[in-house]
Predict the structure of Conserved oligomeric Golgi complex subunit 6.
Amino acid sequence: MSMLLQHRVKKLLSNSSELTQAKALLDSLPDLLPKDAASLSSMELRASLKSSLDVASLDAADAVLRETEGLLSSMDALKKQADIMDRKCRHVMAFLDSTERTSTQFVAQAAALRAEQDAIQLELDSTKDFLQKHQVSLDDLQLLEQAAPLTESQGTAMTSYFQLLHRLQTIRSNCEHLVATNPAASSLEYLEDICKAQALAFEKLYAWASVLCNAADAPDDHVSDLQDDSTDDVARLLPQALRFLRGHAAYYTYDL
């Protein structure tokens, strides 16, 4: 028996945690015993100790139950917070997804608008090029209107005027080609407008050339009045005017 007790003591000493638990259990025994434990018999002492142990077990179980309930309550509150966070995260994810779709739509719309702008710019450039080829510009019309009356002293003005006649002839050729390839009402209207502008230009050119030709047929004393610094320009520009008028029988006559 002593050997068994020694073995038990060594085993308890080898495990400090068990020793601590055993010591705590032994220390708690006096609290469980009644005050008159010394006067009680072994049977009564066991019954009292059993009753006290049962009460202590119930108290411990009740404490554990309360702690478990508190833990469950904390876990339930934590679950509610987690659910709230989950809903917020889902809302944020939905917002980000909507924002991404909206951004994608904006990018697509911007690309479509850019393509539309490029198409409009291309059409505008094409229209400008078309009008430049088939319509008299405002600057040319102003030059045509301001060219009257032409006099033999306007050498610089006549140089610009001849350049205008060349442009009008080019535009007329383009309009004639347009009518041949696309005989629409608008094409005929372009051709009619350029013909009117060209006719007005030739009328003023004819008037200018007539002044010089009539001056050449005038008496010598009148011709001497024309001998000034512009004579060289006139001598150079008059043949050009006659070359323009030669192709138009209505203006190029024997009298001219």
The radius of gyration is 60 Å. The mean pLDDT is 76. Residues 42-134 form the longest helix (93 residues).
